[in-house]
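[step 3/7] fold_predict: job queued, chain A
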Amino acid sequence: KDENSGGYVEGYNGNGLWSLAITYMAFVVGNIFAPSALALMGPRLTMIISSLGYVFYILQLLVLNDALLYTSSVILGLGSALYWTAQGNFLALNSRESTIDRNSGIFWAMFASSGIIGNLIVYTQFRGKEFIDTSTRNTVGAVLISMGSAATLTLMLLLPPYQDEETKEKERNNPKKGPIQALKDSGKLLLTRDMALLSFTFFFIGLQLNIRSALYNTCIGFTAQFGEERKGLAVISGIFIALGEVLGGAIFGIFGKLTVSKGKSPIILLGYLCCMTAYILMFINIPKEAPFGETTLDNLAFIDPNKYLAVVASFLIGFSDACYNTQIL
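[step 4/7] structure written:
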């Protein structure tokens, strides 16, 4: 919003935190109807169509406009709900009971690795810049759009899940559910005891998702004590979050049979200890004013903000997230 920054757009007042809030409100609504969409189109087609929501959201980086930002946030939220429901179903259809833990871990490691690649691209563009100019924004936007479009094209190459004779026989004896029946069944599932218990875990993971994916890195970028390269440090934080995610996914995927030999509880407990440690480090290292905008040198935390502590907290929050998600997927 500085007219001398080189990236100023007159009349643009878009707020990233509001955009994120709108995205997840749309995500909640989209999840209600995701089972119906999945029953109507199947997992492969649902993933292809919903992935376009991610590409559309990136497109608005090239034409900054308040209405376009918030509209694309709604489309992204709805698309994300469909995509995650479909990919979970596709993963389950391509796994057996003996391989689902391994496949979930491998999927999570592959998914999280995008955070390393994407953040490295952004870091090379943002390094040494206090403000993001128009040329940099357009370059990053073009690269991300190209990668997102390539991902959508890759989804078209996915083969239908393999079905043995037993599975085919079950399908013949149990007709495919329609959209209305799928919606009713998801409503019944929501009212079960297991889902009621899991809802507390889902709520916590949702809060942590918001912190690790947007809030924490934004706070680092707003902390004046980190110097002129604080925007670059925010990107490095994203890389270490992704490294923690990848390491956790690899450990619990490749060595899945060993790590779950004593059940899922020890892994969940490890994730809890890691995330609580990360939150304590964030609390003492980041000024309380950072979530609301750029801080000044007078805005202090409990200690002098330390770059290394910030990065350690990033890695721990990423690893803890992998602990939770690989066990719940």
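[step 5/7] annotate
The chain has a mean pLDDT of 82.
The two ends are 41 Å apart (CA to CA).
exit 0
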